[in-house]
Amino acid sequence: MKLYGIPTCGSVRNARKFFKDNDIDLEFVDFKKTSVDCEKVDEWLEQMDMDVLFNNRGTKYKTLMLKELNLDDSGKREWLCKENMLFKRPIIEFNGKVVVGWDEEKYKEIFIK
């Protein structure tokens, strides 16, 4: 299982704590140190809508002034390929599936058996 995010993100901290508290091992991938490429973006987009993956409320989105560009899904994909700070976080890969965002109840349903 892999968890993608940044250590300073509150949602990522909550997710990491959840997994630690439930003795679930995972590999942490820090977007600030390891970027994902277009291949990984496409892999994730096969399982979810762009609106789930693309963070249009974050600081990076605002500082890049992307709202003014009125991006379609193709444009958003291009930006995700080159700027990993535009992903909603955390992103969790497990058993060939992908979960995006922090939701403790959802995590309990999916990861606690």
From TrEMBL:
Gene3D superfamilies: Glutaredoxin. It comes from the Bacteria. Belongs to the ArsC family. This is Arsenate reductase. It comes from Sulfurimonas gotlandica (strain DSM 19862 / JCM 16533 / GD1).
